[in-house]
Automatic annotation (TrEMBL):
Residue(s) at site: Important for catalytic activity: 231
Function: Functions as a peptidoglycan terminase that cleaves nascent peptidoglycan strands endolytically to terminate their elongation.
Protein name: Endolytic murein transglycosylase
Naturally occurring in which organism (per UniProt): Ignatzschineria indica
Spans traversing the lipid bilayer: 12-35
Family named by the database record: Belongs to the transglycosylase MltG family.
Single GO molecular function: lytic endotransglycosylase activity
Enzyme class, UniProt record, top EC level: lyase
Organism phylogeny: Bacteria, Pseudomonadati, Pseudomonadota, Gammaproteobacteria, Cardiobacteriales
A cellular component term, taken from the record's GO annotations: plasma membrane
Amino acid sequence: MRLLGRVIQTFFRYLLSKVSVIIFLIILLGGFFVVSKDLEDFLQTPVNLPEDGIVLEIKPGMTIDDVVGILRSKNIIRNALYFKWYARFTGDASKLKVGEYALLPEMYPLELLSIITSGRVLQYNFTIIEGWNFSQLRQALEKSPHLNQTLKGLSNEEVMAAIGLEGKPYEGYFLPDTYLFPKNYSDAELLKRSYAAMNEVVDKAWATRQPNLPIKNKRELLTLASIVEKETGVASERPEIAGVFVRRLQKGMRLQTDPTVIYGLGDQYRGVIYKSDLQRDTPYNTYTRDGLPPTPIAMPSREAIYAAANPKPGKTLYFVAKGDGSGEHLFSETLDQHNRAVKQYRDRMRGK
C-alpha cells in the first residue's frame, strides 16, 4: 500500500508540474497576444502632432533613446517603449540621420521612424533673382536667416578665393534660380553651386550658338546676355532684343544701352539717367565706347543666355518701350522709325 501511495503521489506531482507549465505557457501566450495587439494598435494609430506639425532636429551623436525622450516630452507618441523596441528590432535605431525633419499631422509611428532614418531632411530655399548684380546677391545672402554666414566682411575678390575660385570673375557668373538646402548650409556652398550651374548653362549655350556671331568667347556671350536681361522683363522679347544688339555689333554701331551706363555709374546713379550721365565716359558706357562692356552687368537668366546665343534674325536696329505698362517694346529698322516710336512713347508718358 505504501508503494502504491508513493506512486500515486509522484503521479499527481508530475501532473501538477505539467499543469503549471501549461498554465504558464497559456499566461505567456496570452500576454504575448495582448502585447502584440497593443503594439499593433500603437503602430496603426497616428502620432499626436499639432495641426501645423513640428520640426524635429536630430543632432550628431543622438541615439534612439534621445529621440524617444524628445518625442515623449512633447507627448507625440503614446508608448515610448514600443517605439524604441520596434526601432531596435528592425535595426532602424542605428540608422538615424542627422538633420531637421518635418513631422506632419496624421503621421503614423512607422512613417515617423522611416522619415528620421531616410535623410530626407527639411529643405530651405534661397532665390537668386534674374538681373541682380553681385552686390545685390551678397546683400540678399547676408539677410537669409537659414544660411550659415561665412563670407560677411570679405571683399568680392576674397569671396571668390573663399569658394575656391580665386582670380575668377564674379559679376554675372551666378545662375538665377531657386536653390534648396538643409540647415547649416553655408553661403559659400550656395555660391559654389550657383557658379557651377551658370558655367553649365553657358557651356551648353555656347555649344549650340548660331554661327558667325560677333562674340569671341563665353565671357562675351554672358556679357551680351546680361544686357538682354536688363533691357526687358518680357521673355518672348529676349531673342529679338539680342538680335538688335548682334546686328549693331556686326555693323560697328554702338550699343547705346542705358543699363550699361547705370552699371558704370555705380553709387553715383541718381535713379534717373541724365544727358550728362550719357556723356560721362566709363568702361561700361556704351554710348561713348564701341562694342561690349568689359564684363557682364548682371546675372542673366537661362532664357537670356540662350537668346544671346541664338538671336532672332531680322533687320531691326532700334527699340523703345511702348510705355503702356506691358513692359514690351516697339522695334524699328531705321532711325526715322525709331524717332517716331520715341515720340509716341514720350507723348504717352506726358498723357497726350
